[in-house]
């Protein structure tokens, strides 16, 4: 029995299935920085504030001097930001902040409402500042949509990197951001997350395969939504079904699937989870179950600003920091090399 149920072209953002709402892959070949966290090149010709045209291989996004996403609100879901290369500066209305990257993941439960910013500081002034990251939105069930917001960091040192060799010794590495793989347990997700219940079988796996390597994605429980995204390489085979880059495959969750890389190294993202199975009503940054709840979200944001913005700038960059860090809403500080 083939595990492949459907093959589809990847759009922008990538198509997702319940319990996931959104997934976008950012690969920006940012130039050297100007000493103020921005690019040391002219921004002429860019649609500043809405720069998504990949001029010269990178975007400013909603930033005007530093690339990224200045302060904006969310309610009713979670953001999972997986940064494989580059740096992200986080700030939010809880007073939490952080600089993370190089394999780290930031997992935020928006719950009843939070503002946050995600800026991409270009800290290297004598060489390029490449960025490779995913942002994934994971829905919350109705009973948890109005929980207190939560800011969490999953440091690269704590995220399992599972190495598997095929019969010819060709290496595959699986990064388990969420979901146990071969007994390797990732850091715990936020306590109110759909992923916090092991019975929901939520997985976020980043897979890197050597050229011509083979790898078996094991069967999971029945009834899950499991999607494989192929984003780097020349060609790959999924149970004999040929995929080209920028294609995805919906997989049967309770059937093992054999992946075979083409003549180049290949990279994939797997998103898996048990569907929440509730109505989804989304308007911009708010995801609820009914239209009335969306109207209430806008009214609450206009009234409270979800706690306001305690930072000097809407595009807050932690210019004086050294290394990676996280400042939690309770004042606790973590520092990494």
TrEMBL record:
Q: Where is the Pirin C-terminal domain?
A: 205-307
Source domain of life: Bacteria
Q: Which residues form the Pirin N-terminal domain?
A: 52-138
Which one Pfam family would you cite for this protein? Pirin
What SUPFAM superfamilies does the record tag this protein with? RmlC-like cupins
Q: Which family does it belong to?
A: Belongs to the pirin family.
Stated name of the protein: Pirin
Gene source species: Reinekea forsetii
């Amino acid at each position: 029995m083939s595990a492949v149920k459907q093959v589809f072209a990847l759009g922008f953002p990538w198509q997702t299935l319940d319990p996931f709402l959104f997934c976008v892959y950012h690969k920006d070949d940012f130039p050297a920085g100007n000493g103020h966290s921005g690019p040391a090149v002219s921004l002429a010709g860019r649609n500043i504030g809405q720069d998504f045209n990949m001029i010269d291989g990178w975007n400013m996004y909603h930033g005007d001097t530093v690339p990224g996403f200045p302060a904006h609100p969310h309610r009713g879901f979670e953001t999972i930001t997986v940064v494989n290369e580059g740096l992200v500066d986080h700030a939010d209305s809880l007073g939490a902040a952080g600089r993370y990257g190089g394999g780290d993941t930031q997992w935020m439960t928006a719950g009843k409402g939070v503002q946050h910013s995600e800026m991409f500081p270009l800290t290297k002034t004598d060489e390029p500042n490449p960025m490779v990251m995913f942002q994934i939105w994971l829905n919350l069930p109705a009973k948890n949509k109005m929980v207190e917001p939560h800011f969490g960091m999953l440091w690269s040192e704590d995220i399992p990197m599972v190495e598997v060799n095929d019969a010819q010794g060709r290496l595959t590495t699986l990064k388990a951001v969420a979901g146990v793989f071969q007994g390797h347990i990732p850091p715990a997700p936020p306590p109110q997350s759909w992923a916090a219940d092991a019975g929901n079988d939520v997985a976020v796996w980043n897979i890197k395969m050597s050229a011509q390597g083979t790898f078996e994605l094991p069967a999971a429980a029945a009834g899950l939504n499991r999607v494989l995204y192929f984003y780097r390489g020349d060609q790959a085979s999924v149970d004999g079904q040929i995929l080209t880059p920028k294609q995805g495959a919906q997989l049967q969750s309770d059937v093992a699937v054999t992946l075979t890389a083409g003549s180049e190294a290949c990279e994939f993202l797997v998103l898996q989870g048990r569907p929440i199975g509730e109505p989804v009503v989304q308007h911009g940054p708010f995801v609820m179950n009914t239209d009335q709840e969306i109207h209430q979200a806008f009214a609450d944001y206009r009234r409270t600003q979800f706690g306001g913005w305690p930072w000097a700038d809407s595009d807050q960059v932690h210019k004086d920091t050294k290394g990676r860090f996280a400042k939690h809403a309770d004042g606790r500080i973590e520092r990494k090399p």
